[in-house]
Amino acid sequence: MTQLVSLDDIRAAATRVAPIARRTPLLDVSTQAEQPLLLKCESLQPSGAFKIRGAYNMVAQLTDDERRRGVITYSSGNHGQAMALAARELGAPAVVVMPKTAARIKVEGARSFGAEVIFEGTTSVERRVRAEREAAARGLTMVPPFDHSWIIAGQGTAGLEILEQRPDIGAVIVPIGGGGLIAGIAAAIKLSRPDVKVIGVEPEGAAKMKASVDAGAVVTLEKTETIADGLMPVRPGDLTFAHVRQFVDKIVTVSDLQITDAVLWLFTQAKIVAEPSGAASVAAALTAKPRLPAPMVAVVSGGNIGMDRLDQLRKLAR
């Protein structure tokens, strides 16, 4: 039987990541949204996304020898930056395997934290295979982007914060890539407040978790296609899937146009910079029918987007 993370695991992670992870604000945008809506601004984390919570929680628990030899991961960008930052803070060499199509801002971010960046393919599977090969050849420790209990517990610390900041919440909306964030947040929420609804959001072109839940087993998609590069894995994790089945109430999908509109709405109305992956939750909140229990919290999971990309999205939305 799969061992799910416990509330104690998440609480311990909260203490562990406190030196580096910011307690991000809940921004009330109810007036702009014309409905009770709060934004959990994980885009304001040191590396620009929630990923620092899980990455630091894992690297901090490695042995001194493992950190001395170094760590490696595979990532479209945000987890790679977070692991690089965690490794720098904890004295470990870092290697990040990124897709050839990785956003420049994310590549530069990982390098700025001292990581060696290797480019491999365009899919999460190609990146993982290359990272596993490098890890074996160099004696590096793998810090997976989502499918590990230490990663999930770290991401769950955002859920604890939400409950502390707004005990009266009715629903939490969370973007799904590989599933680490929603697995952790859902565990934190449901183990504390089972009455709060947890809703997952995927792009229509990358709905691997929804397909898996509908099938009752992990599904690997033939391909994914979406502007939300952080939500593009072709399959969820086995462990993250188990958490979603146990704790998540519903998974919805949004179109790329809805995501684009949400990025621009956040920028113009809420004055928040969000990348497409981070804005998927807001896209779902703004288009939810029927409306979810109020007040809703939409997790803005990342803000690593360059001005060039923001301008492209603005033109697409015209």
> What CATH architecture of the largest domain do you see?
3-Layer(aba) Sandwich
**Would you report the number of β strands?**
10
The run of helices and strands is HEHEHHEHEHEHEHEHEHHEHHEH
CATH class of the largest domain: Alpha Beta
Level of helix content?
40-55%
> What is the molecular shape?
globular
What integer is the average pLDDT? 94
- How many domains make up the coordinates? 2
User: Which strand order does the major sheet show?
Assistant: 1-2-10-7-8-9
- For this structure, the CATH topology of the largest domain is Rossmann fold
Describe the structure.
The protein is globular. The termini are far apart. The relative contact order is 0.16. The protein is α/β, with parallel strands linked by helices. It has helices at 7-17, 30-33, 52-59, 64-69, 78-90, 104-112, 124-138, 149-165, 180-192, 208-215, 238-247, 256-270, 276-287, 307-316; strands at residues 26-28, 37-41, 71-74, 94-98, 116-119, 141-142, 171-175, 197-203, 250-254, 296-300. It is built from 14 helices and 10 strands. It has 2 domains: 7-49 and 148-316, Rossmann fold; 52-142, Rossmann fold, CATH 3.40.50.1100. Helix 1 (7-17) crosses helix 3 (52-59), helix 3 runs parallel beside helix 5 and helix 9 packs parallel to helix 11. The model has no long low-confidence stretch (mean pLDDT 94). The strands form 2 sheets. A 6-stranded mixed sheet has the order 1-2-10-7-8-9, with helices on both faces. Strands 5-4-3-6 form a 4-stranded parallel sheet, with helices on both faces.
